[in-house]
Amino acid sequence: MFRPVSSKLDLPQLEERVLHWWKENKIFEQSVENRKGGPRFTLYEGPPTANGSPGIHHVLSRIFKDIIPRHRAMKGYYTPRIGGWDTHGLPVELEVERELGISTKPQIEEYGIDKFNARCRESVFRYLKDWNALTERIAYWCDLEHPYVTMENDYIETTWWAIKQMWDKGLVYLGYKTAAHCPRCGTSLSSHEVALGYEDNVEDPSVYIKFKTQLSTGREDEVSQRLSQLALSRDTYLLAWTTTPWTLPGNTALAVAADAEYAVVEADNEYLILADALREQMGLGDNKVVMKVEGSYLAGAEYEPLFNPHEFGVERRRFQSGAELLPQKPDQNLTYRVIATDFVSMEDGTGIVHVAPAFGEVDFEAGKEQGLDFVQQVDLQGNITGNYSFSGKFVKDADPLIIDDLKSRGLLYRSETIRHTYPFCWRCSTPLLYYVKESWYIKTTAVKDRLISGNNEINWYPEHIKYGRFGDWLENNVDWAFSRERYWGTPLPIWRCESCDYRECIGGVDDLKGKPGFNGLKEPLDLHRPYVDDMTYDCPQCGATMRRVPEVIDCWFDSGAMPVSQVHYPFENETLLEDGRFPADYICEAVDQTRGWFYSLHAISTLLFSRPCFLNCICLGHILDAKGEKMSKAKGNVIEPSAVIDKYGADALRWYFFTSSPPGNVRRFSVDMVSEVTRRFLLTLWNTYSFFVNYANIDRFTPGMEGVLSHSELDHWIISELNQLVADVDNGLEHYDPNGAGRKIEGFVDDLSNWYVRRSRRRFWKSENDADKLAAYTTLYQCLVTLTKLLAPFIPFVAEEMYRNLVCSAFPDQPASVHLADFPVADMDKVDRHLADDIRLIMRVSSLGRAARSEAGIKVRQPLSRLLVKVASERHKRALKHLAPQVLEEVNVKALEVVDDMPVTKHKDWPLASEGDVMVMLDTDITLELAAEGMAREIVRRLQMMRRSAGFEIADHIATCYQGDEYIRSVMADFTDYIKQETLSEQLVDGAPEEGAYTEKFKLEGHELLIGVKKLN
Ligand SMILES: [Zn+2]
Ligand SMILES: [Zn+2]
User: Fold this and answer.
1) CA–CA separation, 203 vs 1010, rounded Å?
2) Residue of 513, 630, 859, 881 with catalytic role
3) Ligand 2: centre distance to CA 514 (Å)
4) Which of 45, 201, 284, 520 could bond to 535 as cystine, CB 3.0-4.6 Å?
């Protein structure tokens, strides 16, 4: 006997019960250990940060991480899964700053780095309990008791080792380069971090500035002479455009395109110079053109600075031999010059580009190449230095003041605003500044070819990521600016001599301790700042003190080093590269990680081992709310995972996420959608299961009695479909397609419930336990048991509950949990494609027939005389003739006629329905006999409803009495056997209801009818 199953499914309660049982019996641990010795399957956990509570998108990535290893474990793979936590970085620091009510680096240093970092350390696991609880609740199976943690000494030591490997290959360098700088966080961002924070539609000033010029180049050709003559006759200005007025005091050059044509136009008694092609766009199309020249004639022309830095107490330096900058003497008559470059756009602006080498990559490169002046009048907090009228202001606040200043001096041509895309700090939303400063770099461009070729070895899901988002990113690779001028992070392991500037990279704790004159170690060892900053040793070159540089590293380097750092390689686990733990078979995160973790993993592994470190990657789309908007606390449209899980259960949420859309798609999410999934799929499955259990118990069916059975065609068909399903689901999960696999299961469960079970109802219903009934039970049992195993990776709770009742109660020697069972293997000999195709045809014809009925407004219970069917192929014609009885029952018609053409003239009112190459027409003429039969069926339906209303069990036999007119009595008499059989009525008596009977009165087609039913003992 199976445990009785209620048709009501309380999923959250069921799940809590299963969770408890898993824990008690260590099912996860067993599912790993039992497969020891099998081939290894490795998942890398992308470590979340536990200093915020987990959201619905974390559920999405965690269940996708879960499903594939579950499948592999059932397939016999040894697949330990290790959790991990990302603990360093700015987000943690920001949180602590907020708590302390401080916001600048000097405030942190005043507070004390030791105390500050201690608070960071405390805060990183603040939400650990929530994370662990949610992880367990959604059945993401991974080892949370022994996770890797990026702030542990061993982890840091391996990260140091990794950097040392790169250092030894000459791939770590100190660059003087343009970096995207967050003035609030006071640190550089790597290019992949910058990519995370672009915002569209940002409003900025758009100003056109006049730079006064004499057009003197010192050249003596005719054109140059004419130009300087013009400039002598009237005030002459070069017109340039910028969206960052705050960079204008740093202007030290104007760039033109050598081969473009420029025009000198007359405007308000002045001459303005701009690209001829952009005159129209600038509203100067109708002005008189005094002269046209090629850009090359403008190159070298001197112009007056907008702001002479010496007048405002700002240092002027000049590029000397590459990136070196030499201070310049004050010069009251300072001029800058026009340069010719290849980066001038003729699409927008004026064709003359303002160049400020301190504030932009292109500008910096131009400065290096052309030996330009360098003026950096902004500090690292983003405030203007010097003694301008706008000094002390944050750059964006200085913009309007600078515009006013230029306007008052007649140097502003036009001022507008523009909406464009601008990068913001992805952590704190402060606008980023491109700023030239010193930073440590990893020369990833040195291995660019291998980064690209390694990507060929990775399977991406969806596939377009490979040569799209990720491939593009690699093609445009730039060196990794990986140092951060911050506090809570893995310290950059580079020591520098205070005296001779000699530098060394340290690759491990023993390496450091073994240095001559090593000093400053405090026990217990903590490799973080400030303790590591106290560790010094003697310079091997000059004997002076070697001190660590102040920077920490990008926390994306931490997480990208997890393949080695999580196992303390090579200090331990020396066999890492050979024992199946590297590379990972599988990783999965959201699409924003292409430039985050996916990239840092790939880059570090390529730099260390010249190999990709993951072979398969599911790249998940983002989750939006039901209206398609981003979820955010500010908008109040965030859906808490617990709100969904407590109401509908984790399996409902899992099933929804797996089957609603392919993993790479952007998803719209609402609680209603989960409820819909529950109704459509989970309840259909559950009802089929509870139907089986309850009937099997009534009939005392015991599984395992197969062998003597003659299966019906219906049984053959569902077993064929089942085996095809096993093959499809296995293949889908093998190829990282839970969505495709899940949808196949959905289709099968629908067929099972709405075709197989429905069409077999009579077989379960009849009173004798014959071979046919046994075959039906055996077949349905096999389908359900196989389903539990196919479903185990998807909805582990429901699958477990069903499996334990269906299997463990009957076969105590079978694995105690579905998750310890083997994944089913398809028996392709049992797959009959022709039969499947035929039944599909019958289903389609039946559904068209029902559609034709509803079009004519005739209810299904009313039998009709015939259905005319037209199909295209001979094979389908034969199949229809052979399988006609099923259609007759489904559509409730007496005959099926296969026709070559529909009769069009005579029966205009007969409804038609068609789909593809199948067309049906329904003969809707109702004879007296058909009407009587329809009445009999209606009476049966009413009786069945009465049985339920009266609270009878499905197997209860009853006595039925009725009272009605002549017509009713004749129908009852003609269909006595049928009515009795369908309603389990032992007696069907014309007369008043017995004492204590449950009675109801109806009016059917104008005939009154009283019925009484009573349960028999
Ligand atoms: Zn920031
Ligand atoms: Zn030295």
Assistant:
1) 78
2) 630
3) 18
4) 520
- Residue 86 annotated to the active site: yes
Cis upstream peptide for 147 (omega within 30°): no
pTM of the predicted protein model = 0.81
Residue at token pair 């390529």:
606
The CB-side HSE value for 16 (13 A sphere, CA atoms) comes to 7
Which position has the token pair 């090629």? 294
**What 3 state SS string does 175-210 have?**
EEEEEEEECCCCEEECHHHHHCCEEEEEEEEEEEEE
List, run by run, the mean pLDDT of 10-residue segments along the chain (1017 residues). 92 97 98 97 94 91 98 98 95 91 89 97 92 97 96 98 97 85 86 86 94 90 91 95 96 96 94 95 92 94 96 92 77 94 90 94 90 94 95 96 96 94 90 89 94 98 96 92 93 96 96 97 96 97 97 96 98 96 97 94 98 97 90 83 95 96 92 90 97 94 68 90 98 98 98 95 83 92 97 98 96 96 97 95 95 90 93 92 91 93 72 90 92 95 94 90 94 94 92 91 93 91
Tokens 């109040």 belong to 636
Active site residue 556: yes
Helices (H), 711-809: 713-734, 738-751, 758-765, 771-791, 796-803
For residues 327 and 295, is the Cβ–Cβ distance under 8 A?
no
CA–CA separation, 98 and 84 (whole Å): 26
Alpha carbon distances (Å) from 862 to 576, 926, 930, 941? 72, 9, 7, 12
CB 261 within 8 A of CB 352: no
The secondary element (H helix, E strand) that includes residue 367 is: helix 361-370
Render 18-86 in DSSP notation, one character per residue.
Answer: HHHHHHHHTHHHHHHHTTTTSPB--B---PPPTTS---HHHHHHHHHHHHHHHHHHHTT-B---EEEE-
Whether the Cβ atoms of residue 92 and residue 119 lie closer than 8 Å to each other: no
Is 627 considered catalytic here? no
- Contact yes or no for 439/181 (Cβ under 8 A): no
Pick the catalytic residue from 8, 36, 329, 633.
633
In the annotation, is 885 catalytic?
no
Burial class of 914 by CB neighbour count within 10 A (0 to 12, 13 to 18, 19+)? middle
Cα–Cα distance measured from residue 263 to residue 286, given in angstroms and rounded to the nearest whole number: 12
Q: Which residues pair with 175 in a beta bridge?
A: 439
Separation of alpha carbons 752 and 843, rounded Å: 13
**Which of 583, 576, 585, 579 minimizes the C-alpha distance to 72?**
585
Residue 593 annotated among the catalytic residues of the structure = yes
Beta bridge partners of 497: 546
Q: Is the peptide bond before 570 cis (omega within 30 degrees of 0)?
A: yes
Q: What pLDDT score was predicted for residue 313?
A: 94
